[in-house]
Amino acid sequence: MNDFEKLQEIRGKNMAAVCDVCGKGPGFGMSVSHSHRRNKRRFNPNIQRVRAIVEGTPRHLNVCTKCIKSNRVVRNTGR
């Protein structure tokens, strides 16, 4: 299984709040108001659509900003 097939397996068929590189997805927790009333909520990762080089060809990936900042993605400059 090559890298692109792994990305497709992680991503699935629909776009979701999941990073194609590290697989980071949404976390769940509570919103707590000043009066300490608690409501369930979802914390989505900061996903950006980036053009990157995958196996020598440029592709669009959904990548979290942590992976972009830590240079886990080889960006395609288009030059």
TrEMBL record:
Question: According to the lineage, what is the superkingdom?
Answer: Bacteria
Record's SUPFAM superfamilies? L28p-like (SSF143800)
**Does the entry feature the keyword Ribonucleoprotein, yes or no?**
yes
What are the record keywords, sorted? Ribonucleoprotein, Ribosomal protein
InterPro entries, alphabetized: Bacterial_rp_bL28, Ribosomal_bL28, Ribosomal_bL28/bL31-like_sf, Ribosomal_bL28_bact-type, Ribosomal_bL28_sf
GO terms, biological process:
translation
| Record Pfam families | Ribosomal_L28
Gene Ontology cellular component annotations, sorted alphabetically: ribonucleoprotein complex; ribosome
One Gene Ontology term of the molecular function aspect: structural constituent of ribosome
Sorted alphabetically, which PANTHER family does this protein's record hold? Answer: 50S RIBOSOMAL PROTEIN L28 (PTHR39080), LARGE RIBOSOMAL SUBUNIT PROTEIN BL28A (PTHR39080:SF1)
Q: Which family does it belong to?
A: Belongs to the bacterial ribosomal protein bL28 family.
**Name by which UniProt lists this protein:** Large ribosomal subunit protein bL28
Its ancestry begins with:
Bacteria, Bacillati, Actinomycetota, Actinomycetes, Actinomycetales
